[in-house]
Amino acid sequence: MMLAFLLLSMALVLAGHAFRLLRWEQFVRIYERPQRGTMLRGMAGGYAINTVLPLHLGDVFRAVFVGRRMKSGIGFALATVIMDRFLDVWFVALGFAAFALLGQGGDAARMAARYYLVLAVVLAVALVVVVALRDGIKRICLAVCGIFNDTLKLDGMVFCWSLINTFKDLGRVNLVRLGLNTVLMWAAYLGSYTALAASMTAAGQSMGLVDVFDALFGQSAGDLRVVLPGGVLDGAPLAACAAMLSWYLVPLAVMWLVTLLPERVRGAVNQATAAAPAEESYLNLLPQADPQDRAAFLSQYFGLQNKAWVDRFLQMNRDITILQDYSAGSNATTMLCMDKNRTFYRKYAFGADGEKLAEQLHWLRAQQDKLPLCEILRTGEEAGCCWYDMTYDPQAVGMFRYLHSNPVEKSAAVLRQVLDTLEEKLYRPTAVAADPEKIRQYIAKKVDGNLQKLREARSLHDLMEAPTLWINGKEYQNLNRLDWLFDRQRLEALFAADPVATIHGDLTIENIICRTDDKGWYLIDPNTGNLHESPFLDYGKLLQSLHGGYEFMMMTPRVTVQGNHIDFALTRSAAYDGLLADLMADLGRRYPDQLDSILMHEVIHWLRLMPYKLSKDRKRAPMFYAGLVMVANDAALHARP
User: Fold this and answer.
1) CA angle, corner 6, sides to 260 and 267, nearest 5?
2) CA distances in angstroms from 176 to 25, 172, 179, listed in the order given
3) What tens digit of pLDDT does each residue of 574-596 get?
4) Do 227 and 99 lie in a common domain?
5) How far is CA 343 from CA 53, 336, 516, in A?
């Protein structure tokens, strides 16, 4: 009889563990496909450690063992284990309360009931407090995590993020199934405890359900101290101790052995228990794949920086993985992403920048039948937000990379094709007469307005006061010596002869995408709202790249400023010089009498860049100011015969 009850109790506790596994995977299934074999091994190992050690240290092992094999990591696994145990506290509290009310278990049951009820209430209050004071608690999390090195700081923030989202996304769990799994789990456990009590009684150690419940969840904390001297079974018959040990250990061995069953058998079990299918979609716990991007985002989140941006970012990107951030010189963000179907680029912006990006999207749609442009896969526009996805082609690279991996002649041929196509398909068909009023607005906003912002910039005050600047060992006239270059009347007369048409507006070499298999090229990232829409602005953008060396500056990490000396390690390739020479020759053929205007538009592009750099990249802003001064000096030399 003892053996029969013991076997029944083991079978029922295994059933309870199975329903616990099904319940646990419901929390995991929100973010990734559960690995049942790994989770079952983690549970077995965790229970084994809990059998030997107190304080439920096995749950930490369970989280680490499973988390190391999860896409979302150990922090997420630990958060799901905490959620699992959080739900158990309530049932254990109700169980001891029921025993106490029924007068069973004596003082031990009453003390345990008080302890668990207080713990349950404390957890409930803590949950309310966390929700009510979430902003302050986020800052505390960031401060505590910031004590450690970057790796541990990121791990800590990911754990806090996982814990927050495990609770927050509970609404995504099938609550009916969650409740059913919980009820069946505890029904199986209680049946097992009852059968175990009967087995122990048959073995000569009189026990009831309340005694087993106390042995597992009371002072002994469910470890092997129950069979040691001073434990619940101190002085019990050997058969009773053996039965208890078997009940602890045999199911754990069975759990481990189950994971070694043939694939066909495990597949049938998974199908019968509604395992997650391979094609099921999951949210990303964090969309960023790169640890540095994750750390930057979580620092913003816990530091409460730009909360509206964070919320919209998550809403937009939780179903994708962000592989790399390619954002550069604008307030729009461009990322290389992937979902379960493909890899693609996503570009998005919020607020006023979102409205600007919407204009860019409309331009791409309007010109898609005229020019080789990036293929738009999906789009989204709403109040204060715009995004669109572009095709990713591993054979397509920016011209910067293409130029430095191919002969200059090939890049020059591509660039001439680009300019010819723009001239034939865009500039010439949309040509209109220059508008003097728009020229005046262009000068007032893009020239006078940005010069004023430079004068008001405290970080550049001393540099701008100097009559000359020494840039990397060479002396240049400062902008205050080149006032004539920016004279309003001079610029109005200079730009009056400019051709005007629909333009790209941001024709840097990085926005010209070349195919490495030589099967063509296409354009990305236009910029609208230039007021004076002249093709010379496109040429000026090309010069900002090839003449001013903008891309190389972006790759230069540091700049030093001492007095009127600005020094930085600006490297410039021979390929750039070769392509620049070809471009200047081509522009000379196209517009032999208007190179002054084109060079001046390059200067204005550098002027337009400066407020952004002063705001977003203040430490390196003097380097870009040096770039402005250098191209202004070249424009001045060309303007004076």
Assistant:
1) 25
2) 15, 12, 5
3) 999 999 999 999 999 999 999 99
4) yes
5) 47, 7, 18
